[in-house]
Specification:
Length: about 290
C-alpha cells in the first residue's frame, strides 16, 4: 500500500528495501551482464568495457563453434524438453487423480517419489547410468549375435536421459497436483454425474477446464527444468550431448563472446516458454470465469 503524502514509512522499510534490491541484483545481474556482453562488436572480449554494439557474435554462433554442432544440440534439448513436459503433465495429472482416493501404501509411494529431490543430482545421474549399463550387459548376454550387430547402448535421449529428468520434474508436478486437488470441490463432478455424464466426460468437461491453468504450469516447469538440467543429464545421456552440456564444455574452450550469445539464446528460449505458458494459463482462466468448457 502506497503511503500518503507526509506519512512516514515504517522503520524497517528501507533496510528491507535494500535487502530486496540486493536480492534482485544478485538474481538478475549476471543475466543482464551476459545479455549485454553478447551484443559486443567484432573486437569485443569477455569482459567490460564493451567494444561496439552488434549482432556479430550471434552470426558467429550460427556458423558454429569449432567442432560443436550447436544446432543438433539445440534440437536434442528441445525434443527432450518436449518429451519431459508431456510425460510430466500426463503422469502428474494421473497421479493427482489417483491420490484423491486412499491408496494402500500411497504415503510411502509419495515419499519415494519426492525423495529424489533431496538426492544429489549427480548421484541420481550416476545411478541411472549404471542401471542402463547393466541393462546393456544383460541384453548382450541373452540376445542373439545377429540382433547385436546394430545395437549400441540402451543409454539415450528418450530412455536414460528422459528417466533422469523425470526424477527431477515429476516431484514438482505431483506437489502442484496434490495442492490443486486438495482445494478441488468434488460437487462439480457430482453434478456432472447427476446430469448423466460418464467419468471421462466429467473429467473432460468439468475437471480438466478447472485445473487447466495448473496443468499448463506443470508443463512449463517440466520443460524449463529439463531445458537447463546438467547434473542429471551428464552421466545418463550416453554418447550425445544436450545444449546445456555443450555450453558447459564450451566454457573452457571458447574465448569469445560467442559463448555469451549462446547463453542469451538459451535464456530467451526459457523466457519464450514461460511467456507462452503464462499467456495460455491466463486465457484458460478467463474461459473458466466465463463458464465456457
Amino acid at each position: 500500500m502506497t503511503p500518503r503524502i507526509g506519512e512516514q514509512r515504517a522503520p524497517g522499510f528501507w533496510p528491507l528495501a535494500i535487502v530486496f534490491a540486493a536480492f534482485v541484483l544478485f538474481m538478475y545481474g549476471p543475466m543482464l551482464v551476459i545479455f549485454l556482453l553478447s551484443f559486443q562488436g567484432p573486437d569485443g572480449g569477455l569482459t567490460f568495457p564493451m567494444r561496439g554494439v552488434s549482432l556479430h557474435w550471434f552470426h558467429k554462433l550460427a556458423e558454429g563453434l569449432g567442432t560443436v554442432d550447436i544446432g543438433a544440440a539445440l534440437r536434442r534439448s528441445l525434443a527432450l524438453g518436449a518429451a519431459v513436459m508431456a510425460a510430466t503433465v500426463v503422469l502428474s495429472v494421473l497421479a493427482g487423480l489417483a491420490f484423491r482416493k486412499k491408496l494402500a501404501g500411497g504415503q510411502a509411494l509419495f515419499y519415494v517419489v519426492v525423495a529424489s529431490l533431496i538426492m544429489p543430482s549427480i548421484i541420481v545421474s550416476l545411478g541411472i547410468g549404471l542401471q542402463f549399463r547393466l541393462l546393456d550387459t544383460g541384453l548382450k548376454a541373452v540376445l542373439p549375435e545377429a540382433w547385436l550387430e546394430d545395437y549400441g547402448t540402451a543409454l539415450g535421449l528418450f530412455t536414460s536421459a528422459l528417466g533422469a529428468h523425470l526424477t527431477w520434474t515429476l516431484p514438482f508436478g505431483l506437489l502442484i497436483m496434490f495442492a490443486v486437488f486438495n482445494r478441488f470441490n468434488p460437487s462439480y463432478e457430482e453434478a456432472a454425474r447427476d446430469l448423466g455424464a460418464t467419468p471421462w466426460q466429467s473429467f473432460r468437461h468439468v475437471v480438466l477446464p478447472l485445473i487447466g491453468p495448473s496443468v499448463v504450469g506443470i508443463g512449463m516447469f517440466g520443460f524449463t527444468l529439463s531445458w537447463d538440467e546438467i547434473a542429471r543429464t551428464s552421466q545418463a545421456i550416453g554418447d550425445v550431448n544436450t545444449l546445456p552440456l555443450e555450453l558447459q564444455g564450451l566454457t573452457s574452450t571458447v574465448t569469445t563472446p560467442s559463448i555469451y550469445a549462446l547463453g542469451t539464446v538459451t535464456t530467451l528460449v526459457s523466457f519464450a516458454v514461460m511467456a507462452v505458458a503464462v499467456g495460455l494459463a491466463m486465457w484458460l482462466g478467463r474461459r473458466q470465469k466465463k463458464g465456457r468448457p
